[in-house]
Amino acid sequence: MLDELYQEVILDHNKSPRNYGVLDKYTCTSEGNNPLCGDRLTIYVSLNSDNIIENISFKARGCAISIASASIMSEVVKGKTVDEVRSLFDYFHNLCTGQEVKQSNHIEDDIEKLKVLSGVKKFPTRIKCATMSWHAIRSALEE
Ligand code: ZN
């Protein structure tokens, strides 16, 4: 359903998700749930006193897109500030919903990673699969 190159990356993340498991120490946690597809996840975030994400992990059950998206999200947000994550959320949300993506000041490497999931915009029922983990990280950081 997605571009072949992107599909390969998604399958790889699904097969061996990065940052998978529960952190020994975490400062915030949040759950995501996508009943339409049956995807569920819990994320664990360790935020330091400078509001920087020191570490993140997740546990999830669901389709390949939801797992791959959570895995990619965990890679992209590590080391970022809360404000940077909010900005990345907006960028990714626009990417997935097919809205015009404004010129951004995000790191090129992050953008390339996130673009892997942009194919979901052609499949409205899968958008939630891709954005669930991002909604979870955003609500975890709002606590
Ligand atoms: Zn799904």
DSSP helix fraction: 40-55%
Q: What small ligands are held by the chains?
A: zinc ion
What characterizes the major β-sheet? Answer: 3 strands, antiparallel
**Separate helix tally:** 5
Q: On the 0-100 scale, what is the average pLDDT?
A: 94
| Pattern of helices and strands | HEEEHHHH
**Unreliable runs:** none
Label the overall shape.
globular
Tell me the strand order in the biggest sheet. Answer: 1-2-3
Ends distance: 36 Å
Structural class: alpha+beta
C-alpha Rg (nearest Å): 14 Å
Number of strands: 3
Beta content comes to 15-25%
Q: Can you walk through the features of this model?
A:
- By secondary structure, this protein is α+β, with helices and mostly antiparallel strands.
- About 50% of the residues lie in helices and about 15% in strands.
- The protein has helices at about 5-15, 65-75, 80-95, 110-115, 125-140; strands spanning about 30-35, 40-45, 55-60.
- Strands 1-2-3 form a three-stranded antiparallel sheet, covered by helices on one side.
- The model has no long low-confidence stretch (mean pLDDT about 95).
- Zinc ion binds next to α2.
- Zinc ion (ZN) binds near residues 37, 39, 62, 66 and 129.
